[in-house]
Amino acid sequence: MNAFTRRDGRLWVEDVSLDELAERHGTPLFVYSATALTDNYDALDRALGDAPHTLCYSIKTNMNLAVVRTLVARGAGIDITSGGELFRALRAGASPEKIVYSGVGKRDDEIDQALAAGIKMFNVESRAELRRIDAVAGARGVRAPVAFRVNPDVDPKTHPYISTGLRTSKFGIPWGEAGEAYAEAKALQHVDAVGIDCHIGSQLTEVQPFVDALNRVRHLLLELRDAGHAIRTIDVGGGLGVTYDDETPPSFEQYASGVLESVGGLGCDLVFEPGRSFTANAGVMLTRVLYEKRNDEKRFVIVDGGMNDLIRPALYQAYQRIEPVGPARGDARAADVVGPVCESGDFLAKDRPFPPVETGDLLAVHSAGAYGFSMSSNYNGRVRAAEVLVKGDRAALVREREGYEDLVRGESIPEEITG
After folding, report:
1. Are 25 and 48 found together in one domain?
2. How far, in Å, are 5, 7, 375 from residue 372 at the CA level?
3. Which pLDDT score is estimated for 50?
4. Are 55 and 180 within one domain?
5. Is residue 64 packed enough to be buried (19+ CB in 10 Å), middle (13-18) or exposed (0-12)?
6. C or N: which end of the chain has fewer Cβ atoms within 10 Å?
7. Which pLDDT score, from 0 to 100, does residue 265 have?
8. Could you tell me if 254 and 204 are in contact, meaning their C-beta atoms sit under 8 angstroms apart?
9. Are 343 and 337 in contact (CB under 8 A)?
10. Looking at the annotation, which residues are catalytic?
């Protein structure tokens, strides 16, 4: 669904005015639609039909407890990459048996926390990591369920920073090493190799890379079963793209059809790790215009939200649509929409056609529900934004705006050292 629509020329989220939310909670402000979140979950779940599957929401995209709880209440599991994300998942009510643990740098204490919780599976990124998991599980006296993340060397045709399935990536084990890795796992005393994991990247706008990678996974699974490995889970990863500008990503139905054609019917539970496709277009960031500035022929619209609040444009040169919450004041002219952070890379848009604005005008930065607040920071001594969740005509503050005391929480000044 499109949760953000206009009424009498002004932008609303579901049945709540964005003007009202900004007035009540200040800016920058992240606003999420609960209905859009659940609609996206239901669409993918429905597209997969009767195929055995578990939708493990990739919590790194948006880890607000209320957002996570909204999806967990719908039946979602969680894909985590750290002990902190495990803590958040459990705090939001996720079932441990629906949690998968991905990522290349799991510490021993994080592995132990996940074993204590009784998670569904570890996605193992290297044979060195496999041995660490075996050792930690042995110390606890349990067997750890694992899947190797195999690297199919398939080009996902996306930004290099979010391409993870190429042979040059830090993620996964080389395809040719898979047989030896599973043989080693079978020989160890405290791991059970129950699955195969494959994740080739993020913001994919074509089905074919998924199909190419999973066709290779299908052949690998059959080879492993012939070798005596009891593989019962295939983690197909995530990465389905969304529309930021003029992209035309596959629908959930097209995506599900491609996956099922490749790895359906193998008697496996199919684990999916959707993140961006659930949350990106379910959220906006609201920011207010401070003033306009001109340098020779260059026009700048300076706003109170910066790269510390939303880093995707600076980090990935990502496009995110920006529009006034109210009616446009005139014809659009080229402008950079920039924030107050002391970096030349602090921008939300570059050379973008943008209408005239005045001090105090409220702007909405779209597609901010994924990798917005979750990647924000306190750089330049800036407090992090508040977050609001909306359902119908109800709105709840689900994260308070930080204060200055939060900036120094946990710090100290030892007089015997500092003088």
Report:
1. no
2. 21, 26, 6
3. 96
4. yes
5. buried
6. C
7. 93
8. no
9. no
10. 342
Return the pLDDT at 158: 44
**98 DSSP 8-state letter:** G
**pTM for the predicted model, two decimal places:** 0.94
Asked if residue 225 belongs to a domain, the reply is yes
Burial classification of residue 43, based on how many CB atoms lie within 10 Å of its CB (0-12 exposed, 13-18 middle, 19 or more buried): middle
- Picking from 277, 302, 335, the residue at the C-terminal end of a domain is 277
CB neighbour list of residue 246: distance below 8 Å, 6 or more residues apart: none
**Residue ranges, the chain, pLDDT below 50:** 156, 158-166
Phi, psi at residue 389, to the nearest 5°?
-115, 135
CA distance linking residue 255 with residue 243, whole number of Å: 15
* Residue 323 belongs to domain with CATH number: 2.40.37.10
Q: What's the confidence (pLDDT) of residue 163? A: 42
Look up residue 26 and give its two tokens: 């200040």
Find where tokens 């197909």 sit. Answer: 236
At which of 277, 309, 330 does a domain end?
277
User: What is residue 419's predicted lDDT score, i.e. its pLDDT?
Assistant: 84
Residue ranges making up the domain that contains 339: 4-31+280-407
